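Moderator note: this is an archived Q&A kept for reference. The question asked for a predicted structure of one protein chain; the sequence and the answer are reproduced below.
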Amino acid sequence: MFSDLPTSFLQMSAIFLSIVIEALPFVLLGSIISGFIEVYLTPEKVVRLLPQNKFFNILIGSFAGLIFPSCECGIIPIIHRFLKKKVPAYTALPFLVTAPVINPIVLFATFSAFGNSWLFALTRALGSLLLAQVLGILLGFVWTGDILVDHKALPLHGHKHTNQEQGHFFQAWIHAIDEFFDSGRYLILGALFASCVQVYIPTHILTSISSNPFIAILILMVLSFLLSLCSEADAFIGSSLLGSFGMAPVIAFLVIGPVLDIKNLLMMTRVFQKSFIRDFILVTVVVVFLFAASLEVLL
């Protein structure tokens, strides 16, 4: 039966399944964490735990990924719940940017992928931290207003969470299930589109126009968005591109991928206002490009 299908369709299906199988556990983990944050983390606790100084809060969010690692596939539900619990956006968004990059698993994977060299791992972490600081400062001192989509009018799958009906632990799991199915549908759509891109857009078209290093940076940023790789695996793809593109474009590929890819962007549309997503994309692209371009000039 499958032998009658086009080879390209079979390749696309295999890539689609691999993306989904790789990402779903992280989405599930993020949804579970989100559920427990919803039940056990109150706004009052947030106020007590976080300092009042905005700069300290930005730094806390930027470096929290060292202690609380999260893959980018599951970070959106966690950030959404943090923001709903009144964690400042200038703390939550830096965590969104850095957690999938500076966590020990991803740093070690990057170290291993580039021949046991810390240069790429630390440069990647530096770019991610720089982006987190810029976003944190803009959210703390420039951007005003709520960045979340208003879901007040939408029912939460018909569940009424009251202490009289069930215990906190059971409530947390109900929230986690709701979050998992909400986020999962966007993951499926994103994975389907990314798999089509990988099969039907020839990579030789990109490599043939990469002679200019600054154009190469832009090309690999776009490629990272389209491929939608998991941050635990993207370094191995990046290392295979090093010979064709050079260090600076590959660093851009590694920094922007965990922040902006197809599946994450679709999940963000469920959580954030369109105007904020537009500004977020613009700032991310500009900062990552300037960081990579600076590396190209310096190195």
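Archived answer notes: Confidence is low (pLDDT under 50) at residues 153-165.
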